[in-house]
Amino acid sequence: ISDQKPLGCWSVKHGQVLTCPVVCNFETHEYIAVHDGKVLRIWKDEDINLDKAFKATLSADVHRIHSLPEGGPLVLFKGGGVRTLDVLLEAPQQEIENVVSDEAIRWSGAFMESQQPVVVFATEKDGDFFVYVQKPKVDSLHKYRLEPQESSKPLSFTAYLKNQTVTLLCLYSNDSVYQVLVPLHQDAEEEEQILPKSLLLNLSVSGSVLKGTSLVVVDKDHVAVLGSLAAPDKEPKECLTIWNTKFQTLQTSKELPLGTSGQLWCYEEKFFLTHGKVLTVILYKCETSSLAAAVGKLKDSQTPGVSSFVNWDTLGNEERVVPFQPQESVAPKAESRMNLRSRRSGVAKVRSENLSVGQLLLSLKDAPTNVLESELKQLMSKAQTPDLQAAIGSVVTALTNRCKANPRYYPQSFLLQIVETRDLSYSLCPDLMAVALEKRDFYLLQICLQKFPDIPEEMTYACLKAFLSISDAYLRVTDVDLDSVICYIDVEFDSKEVKTEIVENGFNAELDEDMCDAKIPREAHSRSDGESCPVTPQRAALLNAVLHSAYSETFLLPHLKNLPAQQTILFLRYLYYLYVKCSEKVNTTLPGVRSPTINQIMDWMCLLLDAHFTVMVILPEARELLSKLHKFVRAQVRFYSELNKIEGSLRELQRLNHLRDSQTYSIEVLEII
């Protein structure tokens, strides 16, 4: 998730619609999807074309597929029937029973109980709600009626299984959460049983009411609710809240100013929700519920206050937890005493070991530069600190914030040390590269491009444009890591590059010259194709760092179209130079550390041509380059085509070598026809 790069993308044909969420089969590592209600598709990660994936047309519309780690995929049909995927694939057109009788399924969940998969789903008909419990492997089905609630109805459901009983939590429109116990076993003779509900939680605190839209179970004593918090005479604000159901308190909350879709998921101690146009992932640590924690009086120094529950600092710059109202009588006093102490004795006197990372950074906000860097270095030296990576990201963010506030401040060596020695990512310190660009710190940008796995395409383009536009004179006095170019480019500027004697794979400029339609001036040949690098070693090293950066073509292309024509031609000339260099080697690999691969070179050449093809065709200075490129690629294709023709003969020769007695000396002449 931190990379923010699509690992795979599959789409249905125009006119087809995916009608339920795609799931993963944990046993076979396959994806399972349903489009147009009843068309089942199954494919693996390496499959490219979804249209060629396994297809099965079912006899009834599918509501949802549930995938259990140990129970396999379960298919729930809109009519209430349930089948395991294995049974369904044996006869895709088998008849599916209709058990819900004109009821609409509003929610469903799957669990494992006594090694048997169980599907629980809630339905609605004319304002009445029903709960079904179905065990497909033993052909068991139970139906219950949910106790009605006057003037309110369920908006969202969630459930968990414990002691052979499903605990169903229902978020109602009257801003309350009710608990319903659903037994997994029922007497066959008993008629439709009405399930009573009990009030679990009122979503209101100090006059503010949470209009919830979605809830998930965190543990037996905590639930998370996503919704809009409305206070008297104030605009409603969307927020994520965590409630202690045991003590009826709001544990912590976080405002979401960019808005959400109203959906919330929870998986492996992480919350997933959409915030604006991005998917936000929030890590949390859920500890045993206690009254001290519920009212904000937990004394454990490792978990000060309620901020230990969720690390909101990972979401933004120095953002803090918004505590629930009853805490305000306790927390501000302690905070004011801390601030008063710091003002009396100087920020440097605050003992960082007694503060959380967020509190320490706040206390150092106005500290002198030497104190700030000293405290931050001390913080990073504590390897035992929980969430060390996030803490270091917060340290870098604090430094970049100070750089933006004070243009004369730029701790280049300190930032470089952090990036080189720590396993950071762009998402942990999103302002670092922007500040480095502003300061023209090309060495730091180079290291970031080499190390960060999740650099946005917009930033990659900004670095590329800066690397191409900077003057050669400035680059000559700039410190740059030349490890990626020193083995194939002469670092002496005034001397020519050492020319290799290895013949390019199948390419001879003299023999192939007459085969190109375009007429190239004779002086162009005097420079010889790819003899000298078109850029200085410093610029080449920076461009190599861009070539190594991960990207998504869909997101990068719009930015590349804004690259000026002259810079595009310069970059394309360098890529052509690298392409020729790679082709000189039998293994098509450039020497050196972190040198570009042939695939990276080809991909970027294609990207540039896609983004600027019309400009390349029109500009006179680009025609020569395109002509060279066309000649070279055509010669390469011809060469590999000739190799393919003798492939069979070479394999036969290899087979004969295995059959021949290695002890006998002989000379054989083989004629290849």
From TrEMBL:
<dbReference type="GO" id="GO:0030490">
    <property type="term" value="P:maturation of SSU-rRNA"/>
</dbReference>
<dbReference type="GO" id="GO:0003723">
    <property type="term" value="F:RNA binding"/>
</dbReference>
<dbReference type="Pfam" id="PF08168">
    <property type="entry name" value="NOL11_N"/>
</dbReference>
<keyword id="KW-0698">rRNA processing</keyword>
<dbReference type="Pfam" id="PF20998">
    <property type="entry name" value="Nol11_C"/>
</dbReference>
<protein>
    <submittedName>
        <fullName>NOL11 protein</fullName>
    </submittedName>
</protein>
<dbReference type="InterPro" id="IPR042859">
    <property type="entry name" value="NOL11"/>
</dbReference>
<dbReference type="InterPro" id="IPR012584">
    <property type="entry name" value="NOL11_N"/>
</dbReference>
<keyword id="KW-0805">Transcription regulation</keyword>
<keyword id="KW-0539">Nucleus</keyword>
<dbReference type="GO" id="GO:0005730">
    <property type="term" value="C:nucleolus"/>
</dbReference>
<keyword id="KW-0804">Transcription</keyword>
<feature type="domain" description="Nucleolar protein 11 C-terminal">
    <location>
        <begin position="373"/>
        <end position="671"/>
    </location>
</feature>
<dbReference type="InterPro" id="IPR048897">
    <property type="entry name" value="Nol11_C"/>
</dbReference>
<feature type="domain" description="Nucleolar protein 11 N-terminal">
    <location>
        <begin position="1"/>
        <end position="285"/>
    </location>
</feature>
<keyword id="KW-0010">Activator</keyword>
